[in-house]
Amino acid sequence: MLATFLIGLREGLEAALVVGILVAYLRRLGRSDALPRLWAGVGLAIALALAIGAVLTFGAYSLTFEAQELIGGLLSLLAVGMVTWMIFWMQKAGRTMKATLEGGLDRALTNGGLWALIAIGFVSVAREGIETTLLLWSMVQSFGDAPSALLGAMLGLVAAVVIGWLLARGAVRLDLRRFFTWTSGFLVIVAAGVLAYAIMDLQEAGALPGPFTSAAPIDAVTGAVALGWAAFPFGWAFDVTNVIAPDGAWATILQATAGFMPRMTWLQVTAWAAYLVVVGFFFVRGLRSRRPTTPRSSTSADRDVSTPTLTQQGAA
User: Fold this and answer.
1) Sign of CA dihedral 177, 179, 182, 183
2) Is the pLDDT at 222 greater than 70, yes or no?
């Protein structure tokens, strides 16, 4: 529940802030008459995300086990790719996102098209909605506890809407740059775990070599799939299920926070470690490149990012 709560909070707050910027800008221009069209686009984006979640949840029941695992693995890979892209996109586009959104809204208002405003609202929310749906679906499949995971996500989304509304009203102040930095770092770890789970799905489906295929190395003594260094690269890297129960609380917490599972294959461990090293390196380098080279006072230039300026924009 904690992991999905944080994901719902992070993704939901990003969407809420984007919508808040658009709503505040329309009101500042005195174009409140265009708000229903903007909200129509937001509603369509939410409906699309829910529809995708429903199709993923109920559409797999008629498939074979191998087909379910194959689709689950591929969708988890897609979720990892979208999350990774979003993390680095936020690092680069955070300073210009507000201006970009307002520019797109200006063009839509100038052209005067109904669908243009609906499209602005739709596109602004659809990306976060689809990304959140895929990520949550992958995590639900991984955890196997759908009610708790979905409840955590819903609570996170509700909290995001409330916080976004309070920020727009100027009732609270939040260091959004720091918030998104920390949550982006958390998503790097979550995405590594989803990647490891995707590898397991693809191995169970037979799409990748592993303990479930003929490529698995066999222990000559026990006759089972080999374990440890002797099992590299297509066997089990470790198995601590006798210490940490796979369906226990500790296993769930470790998998949600660090992507750790009590039993993992070498391909899983390799993919997990490689993702953390490579993506983590570029993520930290991106953070360092954003730091100013000389000390500056807290001026408007320091606040020239899309999210913190929403407070002043909403108050206006």
Assistant:
1) negative
2) yes
**Rounded Cα distance, 46 and 127, in Å:** 10
Rounded Cα distance between 71 and 63, Å, is 10
Both ends of the chain: CA-CA distance in Å? 37
Helix runs in the chain, H state only: 2-28, 35-59, 65-93, 97-111, 114-143, 146-169, 176-204, 249-258, 266-290, 309-315
The pLDDT value recorded for residue 114 is 66
The Cα 60–Cα 47 span in angstroms is: 20
pLDDT of residue 12: 86
How distant is the alpha carbon of residue 14 from its chain centre? 11
pLDDT in tens, 102-157: 787 787 777 766 677 788 888 878 888 888 888 888 877 776 666 777 888 889 88
- 7: amino acid identity, one letter: I
- Res 3 pLDDT > 80: no
| pLDDT higher than 80, residue 226 | yes
Got the DSSP string for 63-123? Answer: S-HHHHHHHHHHHHHHHHHHHHHHHHHHHHHTTTHHHHHHHHHHHHHHHT-HHHHHHHHHH
**Could you tell me the pTM of the whole model?**
0.77
User: What does the pLDDT look like over 35-71, one tens digit per residue?
Assistant: 888 889 999 999 998 898 888 777 766 677 788 888 8
Residues 139, 55, 50, 134, CA torsion sign: positive
Q: Which of 154, 126, 131, 144 is nearest to 4 (CA)?
A: 154
List phi, psi (to 5°) of 28: -65, -35
